[in-house]
Design a protein that fits this description.
Shape: globular
Number of domains: 1
Oligomer: single chain
CATH class: Alpha Beta
CATH superfamily: Ribonuclease Z/Hydroxyacylglutathione hydrolase-like
CATH architecture: 4-Layer Sandwich
Helix content: 10-25%
């Protein structure tokens, strides 16, 4: 395989709309009503989500862990967007959700510092990944684990765990599903965060049960080169739009792009396709706040 230059000039890196102390203050100070959520995109598949009664985080990747790990390989993970925060920057954290073990969703460069800063916080993740989380230094008593196909009450949040295929389920009879998505029901709003997944037979049927208001869906898909590099695939733009249409047309918030130069997609392609399909969507900037009100 011929090498490809995945580098990016520092001047071309994307600067978050908000970052550092200003972003933390915005998260802390924003007031949310029943039937609303405030959402901040923190890059890749990572979000801060605040409802009337709680604040939680999903799939945080706030470091250069993967850039350092793969620096001298044939798939260098060159960052496209500056990290808006570090794990140690976040105060008063109660709940962090991780959809699977891959480092841009369970980050060795983010979570140990976050949990050192917030020793009472809980990490909610598949049981299959609990040992790995502990190997990063996260205490066992900080973990809430799931088989990946069940419903749990996490504080005020009802969480329905939905298996994800990345690209297969890799189900284990003892440990359950290692890749999951989340349906969050909180304060009158229902959100689906896919984690990383392909669209599989039965996924839409599962999600229709919950009348999802807003769906966070990946759009980076795959291609022949990424397949050669053994990069696990996600749904692509068309598949994400079809899934949303098949589950009642929630507002789509696309994710899993603008992080690594070798594994991204131009979000303008999503915008054009969504407009052509008359699908509702919100494309966010890293560090941006969006207040969503359920109908």
């Amino acid at each position: 395989m011929d090498p490809i230059d995945y580098s990016i000039d520092a001047a071309d890196m994307i600067t978050p709309l908000q970052s550092g102390a200003a972003l933390v203050a915005d998260i802390q100070q924003t007031q949310v009503q029943l039937g609303q959520v405030a959402i901040w995109w923190l890059g890749q598949s990572g979000y801060a989500i605040k409802s009337a009664s709680t604040l939680f985080y999903v799939d945080l990747y706030l470091s250069e862990h993967l850039s350092n790990k793969y620096k001298d390989t044939n798939k260098p993970h060159v960052r496209m967007t500056h990290a808006p925060l570090r794990g140690s920057d976040l105060p008063d954290v109660n709940y962090v959700f991780s959809s699977h073990k891959h480092s841009d969703h369970l980050d060795p460069g983010t979570l140990p510092d976050l949990f050192a800063q917030n020793p009472e916080a809980k990490l909610i993740l598949p049981q299959a990944n609990a040992e790995h989380a502990q190997s990063l230094g996260i205490p066992a008593d900080s973990l809430i684990t799931t088989s990946g196909d069940e419903t749990l009450q996490v504080g005020p949040i009802t969480v329905h765990f939905v298996p994800s295929a990345h690209p297969t389920f890799e189900h284990d009879d003892a440990l359950g599903y290692p890749f999951v998505g989340f349906v969050f029901e909180v304060d009158g709003v229902t959100l689906y965060h896919s984690g990383d997944t392909l669209v599989y037979d039965g996924l839409a049927d599962r999600l229709r049960l919950y009348e999802v208001d807003l769906a966070f869906l990946p759009i980076n898909g795959t291609d022949a080169r990424r397949t050669e590099l053994h990069v696990p695939p996600n749904m692509n733009i068309e598949e994400a739009l079809d899934l949303a249409a098949n589950i009642g047309q929630p507002l789509i918030v696309p994710h899993h792009y603008d992080m690594f130069t070798f594994n991204t997609v131009d979000v303008q392609q999503f915008i054009q396709a969504a407009d052509a399909a008359s699908a509702p969507y919100r494309v966010m900037q890293c560090g941006e706040k969006f207040i969503f009100t359920a109908e």
